[in-house]
Amino acid sequence: MYPQHFWARMFTVNPDGKKLYLLTPGDSSHFWWRDPLHILAWAWHPSCGDRFYLFEDRTQTAQVIDLNVMTQDGHCSYLPDKRWILCDTYPGKERNQNPYNVETRKRHPLGHFYSSPQYEWEWRCDTHPRFSPDGRKVVIDSPHGGNGRQMYLIDISRIVKVGA
Fold first, then answer.
1. Mean pLDDT across the stretch 11-37?
2. Is the domain of 49 the same as that of 83?
3. DSSP characters for 109-141?
4. pLDDT number for residue 48
5. What is the domain range of residue 109?
6. Quick one: 60 and 39 in the same domain?
7. I want to staple 112 with a disulfide (CB 3.0 to 4.6 A). Which of 66, 96, 116, 164 is the partner?
């Protein structure tokens, strides 16, 4: 398991470099702008500790994302419709990485991808899930196929019901 402590803070600032604002009271990592006012990020907050939160820019408002679904730090983003969150996990005890989608407090696994011990620490290969512009597909990075780091395409249209 990777360390949970980052020593990083999240700030926002105007495009002209003025009005610097400290958004998180504690450490943070892996963020995504949902819209011009809201940022999804893994962070420490006094309300629930280390979790994913939806922060409202230039306020102290932080809404924790479901405590039972998104329980680990990972690379997050919103699909184009803003209803679905795409995220992943770091390798666990069995060395599997697990990209998934979240909507309405339910986790939808997109697969379990083995990452051998040779891909630990600085040589690791995070899945970094990212969606296609239409929200129907996800691309991940993974060494699970035995051919080194490769990119894999996952069709999620049945899960998210896009164009179905």
1. 93
2. no
3. E---EE--GGG-GGG------EE-TTSSEEEEE
4. 92
5. 74-164
6. yes
7. 96
Cβ count within 10 A of residue 61: 12
| Contact residues for 104 (Cβ-Cβ < 8 A; gap 6+) | none
Domain match, 97 and 159 both? yes
* Gyration radius from the chain CA atoms: 16
The closest alpha carbon to 81, from 140, 152, 138, 161, belongs to 161
Q: What is the mean pLDDT of residues 37-54?
A: 93
Residue in this structure with the two tokens 């730090």, named with its chain if needed: 73
Domain boundary among 39, 70, 101: 70
Per-residue pLDDT at 125 exceeds 60? yes
pLDDT band per the 50, 70, 90 thresholds, residue 162: low
- Position 66 scores a pLDDT of 83
Does the pLDDT value for residue 4 go beyond 60?
Answer: no
Contact between 131 and 80 (Cβ < 8 Å): yes
Closest-CA residue to 84 (of 129, 26, 30) = 129
Question: What average pLDDT does the chain have?
Answer: 88
How many C-beta neighbours within 10 Å does residue 18 have? 7
pLDDT tier for residue 5 given thresholds of 50, 70 and 90: low
* DSSP labels, 11-70: EE--TTS-S-EE--SS-EEEEEEEETTEEEEEEEETTTEEEEEEEETTSS-EEEP-TTT-
